[in-house]
Specification:
single chain, globular
Length: 258
């Protein structure tokens, strides 16, 4: 069995473990309820029905998708280590980098399914209320997937060398900060903030900038999405995820399981 076959088997096993996680179904249930609740919320804001359906639906997909990527992902990696099953895997002809990559691809496969389910609820609400489905929303959901794939890489990176509690805390922190980096940089560019400007610039260029992948507001407004921006953002997400995975592989390679 070659590397690709071993990675494929690991990804399949990770996916099967993930779909048996009760936390996954609880999060999907709350996401569905939040999407459906947009019908009630729209009645409280006269004249903004379509915008609310889109805002709430896309926000629910992004938020609960991130929670699934972080908490389900971290638990899966930790479970392998705590139950000592990782020893049996690594005793076989499975390299440590194959283990990390297989886990990541299995979790990304799970994200495809859960985004599809939540998007189905989102589409059902739009159809029920007669709101048009535009291509901008398809692109927005696609970029939500790229963001979640990046967040999953962050979770795998931290899980490769630390405890699930710290990995979850660090990943959630980066998820929140990643959406605020533009504001952090603007604060450093203000007059009188010259002393912290090097720090804000370093944070802006080194941490995962999730704001680059966020086109939900433009999609909810029905605005056209710039193709060059989408291409650059997609390349950014793929490259950053790749760097994190390589870092996770290197750290996992040195981890002592004794």
């Amino acid at each position: 069995m070659n590397s690709l076959q071993r990675i494929w088997v690991l990804a399949q096993n990770t996916y099967r473990e993930a779909i048996r996680d009760k936390l996954l179904y609880n999060l999907l249930l709350f996401a569905a309820l939040m999407i459906v609740s947009s019908i009630v919320l729209a009645k409280l804001h006269l004249g903004y029905d379509e915008r609310i359906y889109r805002d709430v639906g896309l926000a629910a997909i992004a938020m609960f998708g991130a929670m699934i990527a972080i908490f389900v992902g971290i638990n899966l990696v930790y479970r392998e280590i705590s139950q000592k099953t990782v020893h049996a895997m690594l005793a076989k002809p499975v390299r440590r980098w194959e283990f990390i990559l297989g886990k990541y691809l299995g979790l990304v496969s799970l994200l495809v399914i859960e985004i599809g389910i939540m998007s189905g609820f989102f589409l059902a609400v739009l159809v029920y209320k007669g709101s048009p489905w535009e291509w901008a929303m398809v692109w927005a959901i696609g970029f939500i997937f790229l963001e979640l794939a990046l967040i999953t890489a962050v979770a795998i990176f931290f899980s490769s060398f630390t405890t699930p509690y710290l990995a979850g805390m660090f990943t959630v922190a980066l998820w929140i900060i990643g959406h605020l980096l533009a504001d952090v940089r603007d604060f450093g560019l203000q007059q009188g903030s010259e002393g912290i400007r090097p720090l804000t610039e370093a944070l802006y260029w080194s941490l995962p900038n999730l704001d680059r992948l966020d086109i939900k507001a433009a999609a909810a407004d029905g605005n056209a999405i710039d193709a060059a921006r989408m291409a650059g953002a997609a390349l950014y997400a793929v490259c950053y995820s790749g760097v994190l995975l390589m870092g996770g592989m290197l750290l996992f390679q040195r981890r002592d399981f004794k």
